[in-house]
Amino acid sequence: MDVFSKCHEINDLLSSKNSNEARDELIKLLNYHKTNNVQYSPVLNNLIREVGLYPYIEYETSNWQEKFVFDAFKIDVGKQYATLHMEQSLLLKKLLDNKNIAVSAPTSFGKSFVIDAFIQHKQPKNVVLIVPTIALMDETRRRIYKKFSDKYKIITTTDVELAEYNILVFPQERAINYINHLKEIDLLIVDEFYKASSVFDSPDRSSILLKAIIKLGRIAKQKYYLAPNITKISNNSFTKDMVFEELLNCNTVFLEKHNLYLSIENDTNKKSEALINILEKNLEKKTLIYAGTYSQTDNVCNLIQTNFSPKESELLKHFQDWLSINYDPNWQLTNIVIRGTGIHNGQLHRALSQIQIKLFEEKNGLNNMVSTSSIIEGVNTSAENVIIWRNKNGRSNLNDFTYKNIIGRGGRMFRHFVGNIYLLEKPPSQKSTELDLPFPDELVNDIAESDYSEYLNQEQINKAINLKTEMESILGKNDYYLLLKSNLLQSSNPELLLKIAIDLKDNKTEWNGLPYLNSDNNDSWDRLLYKFIKLDPGGWDIEYNKFVSFVKIISNNWMHSIPDLLYELDDIDIGINKFFKLERNVSFKLAALVNDVNELQKIIINDNVDISPFLYKASNAFMPSLVYQLEEYGLPRMLSKKLEKHSIYDFQSKNSTIYNFISFFLNLGEKNVYHIHFGMNLINILFHIFMMELPLLMSRSSKM
Q1: Which of 10-19, 191-200, 454-463 has the lowest mean pLDDT?
Q2: Which of 163, 402, 493, 671 is the least buried, fewest Cβ under 10 Å from its Cβ?
Q3: Contacting residues for 369 by C-beta, under 8 A, at least 6 apart
Q4: Do the beta carbons of residue 522 and residue 617 sit within 8 Å?
Q5: Phi/psi at 667 (nearest 5 deg)?
Q6: pLDDT band at 451, cuts 50/70/90?
């Protein structure tokens, strides 16, 4: 390549005000320099400054003007200094000027740097950061811990008290449950706020996010909402006091698209051959494969298993052995990891997902990751290559918004200037995305009458008043008001809550025996479990009788291994993939339903009856609460069991909290941990991932 001629071309583009194309061509030129280990010239550094990509300036080869800019835009982002690019700096300035901002920017923009720089510079006392998934909460928590744990208490669970300085990272459901602990918030951050629209998430989850936005927004001094690929926000009550910043052309990487679908022409064999060829040519590179559906994930993994030999990797062999012993030797993930490929979806245990992401980021770990849309919803990872295997998102066709989010995982600042996007099926038609946030009917139960005119249309006002009248007639006006104010109810569906209240009122005798659920004799649970799941008949993903059997079997989750549980579940045709899905249904959907029945029956039937012990067990998948929390931190339940088995730590103690355990673990010391016989050398992976979560271990985590 003639570098000088290319610089001339880029300069001409800038002179003609074609800055977007100039930026793209410059990024491709930077990729050429990186690939060929070519030093930057002063001319190239000058062009980098002209397009505003200041972090890319090569300091040693710069003239004084570029060095001045590089230093001028350098800022403390928490235990490290980073040079912001022009758009990041402008965005940070507006936040520091106390503006409420909703921003839409590419995945590669670096929005988290702006958050971190704001916290470091302004030192707010209470920051609440709402994220859409537990996995993204994990990702955010890890970043925040590294930078701010010396001053801030980082809170991710609802049973933790506030300190003087706090950063709270919650999915919307946990945020709702923590509202009563907060009197004021200095900054409310909503990541992926487009999910407040039912177009982009389920009505249940989007309405809960809107509820959190309303209630937390009222006590927030400042608000900052982030999303990718939104071109416009329609008039709405939720962002009316915010400035919308559309920065979609501010890319820091270039996406090179390879339209292989044109030659594949819907031929299944050609598509399979194309996938294999891409992977063969990129054996040492990181590749994300978007499969689109669970069944297509199976198809892609079968192709890889058939066409690629096991890797000579001791690390992956240990991981395979560990999966075989602790999960299932015949599981697809067990058999595919040794071929350098992982599987990512929203149903896996959190620790499993974290282990795979860690191995994907390791040079000698996993090279490929086959994923559903979970990879864009829950993990801040990227790769040099992204393959679109299927243009589906579950049962629906892939829309342009989600497509852009997926291909946005290609490339990363400083690591991959160019992300290669291989399209094996035709992408969706390009279109702009306007975010519409109407007030959902599901929230009419949660808004005070004084706010009706602000949020609701007349039909919704009438519906809210009728619902309120019916609920007050059953519960009593004062009890109903206190119940809403306490935020104890978890369902966002007012019609379901009314249905529960009516059933409790009209069929009191049928709800006799609720305390049996607190019994360790799970044979006494059947009738009541049927009562619960029939209240909300959709979405259990299995026949009622099998779900009841599943609940009773996993009530031994802490005492039995997963292989033992799977052996029992085999009699009702539940395998490992279904196990993950149903376990989540127990800890989220069933637990929420039990909670709401419990709170309502205390008012309607008997205040002396309390099934909180059963609720506690179900919400933690019938394991000690701390064990369930530690899986979010990256510690698999199997290792927690080992610690208790060797009398190292009592997870069932009432004093067992996440902070007590971390303190204990630090005092235990690295050498003592390794003297425990865990039966697998994989301990080096698992404890490395877990210990990275502990701020005081940052300096020595690399030794493990």
Answers
A1: 454-463
A2: 671
A3: 286, 287, 288, 289, 341, 342, 343, 344, 356, 360, 375, 381, 383
A4: no
A5: -70, -30
A6: low
- In the DSSP assignment, the letter for residue 653 is S
Is the CB of residue 547 less than 8 Å from the CB of residue 533?
yes
SS3 265: coil
Cα–Cα distances in angstroms (integers) from residue 261 to residues 13, 270, 368, 423, 590, in the given order:
31, 9, 21, 6, 43
Residue 457 CB: number of other CB atoms within 10 A? 12
The mean pLDDT of 427-438, rounded to a whole number, is: 90
Closest to 149 in 3D by CA, of 701, 692, 704, 703: 692
Token duo for residue 549 = 């059997």
CA distance 459 to 461: 5
What is the torsion angle, in degrees rounded to the nearest 10, for the CA atoms of residue 394, residue 395, residue 397 and residue 399?
A: -50
- Which of 398, 486, 396, 400 has its CA nearest to residue 446? 486
Q: Given strand 341-344, what is the order of strands in its sheet? A: 254-258, 418-423, 385-388, 287-290, 368-371, 341-344
Confidence of residue 372 (pLDDT cuts 50, 70, 90): confident
Residue 155 has pLDDT above 80, yes or no: yes
Top mean-pLDDT range of 168-182, 222-236, 267-281: 267-281
DSSP letter at 435?
E
The answer to whether residues 266 and 314 touch, using CB atoms and an 8 Å cutoff, is no
* Tokens at 241, concatenated: 């006091």
Residue carrying the six token digits 């996007």 = 421
pLDDT score for 699: 26
* Element at 370 (helix H, strand E): strand 368-371
Average per-residue pLDDT for the chain? 88
Contacts (Cβ under 8 Å, ≥6 apart) of 520: none
Q: Which two tokens stand for residue 575?
A: 């395998």
pLDDT at 198: 87
- 244 pLDDT above the threshold of 60: yes
Q: What is the largest CA-CA distance in the chain?
A: 86
Distance separating alpha carbons of residues 59 and 42, to the nearest angstrom: 10
Cβ count within 10 A of residue 502: 14
pLDDT value, residue 66: 94
Task: Please give the single-letter amino acid code of residue 662.
Answer: I
For the chain, how far is it from start to end, CA to CA, in angstroms?
Answer: 44
Report percent pLDDT > 90 for the chain. 60
Answer for the pair 330, 246: CB distance below 8 angstroms, yes or no. no
Q: Give me the pLDDT at residue 669, please.
A: 60
**Quick check: 447 pLDDT over 80?**
no
Q: Which two tokens stand for residue 506?
A: 């009209």
